[in-house]
Design a protein that fits this description.
Strand content: under 5%
Shape: elongated
Number of domains: 1
Order of helices and strands: HHHHH
Radius of gyration: 12 Å
Distance between the termini: 8 Å
């Protein structure tokens, strides 16, 4: 799945519509603010943290959340929400 396809899936999971053109989509993979907004909707935050730790190759620790990039967080969100 391409990053663009993943962005569409994440936007749909957030309930966003009207993003017919790519430039209207939030760029979850490079914008921490956009990805944080999506994180707020999570019901299974513990699963997200586990996925993020796996992606980062680190043990599950609070400090690693601070160091996670938007791309890492987006990938973990997609996995947590079973979007890919």
């Amino acid at each position: 799945m391409t990053e663009q396809e993943k962005r569409i899936k994440l936007a749909e999971a957030q309930g966003l519509t009207g993003w017919e053109e790519a430039r209207c989509l939030p760029n979850y993979f490079s914008d921490l603010n956009a990805v944080h907004e999506l994180e707020k909707t999570l019901q299974h935050y513990g699963v997200f943290v586990d996925r993020l730790a796996e992606i980062m190759g680190q043990p599950r620790q609070g400090i690693m959340l601070v160091n996670a990039t938007a791309a890492q967080r987006s990938e973990a969100l997609g996995l947590t929400l079973n979007l890919w």
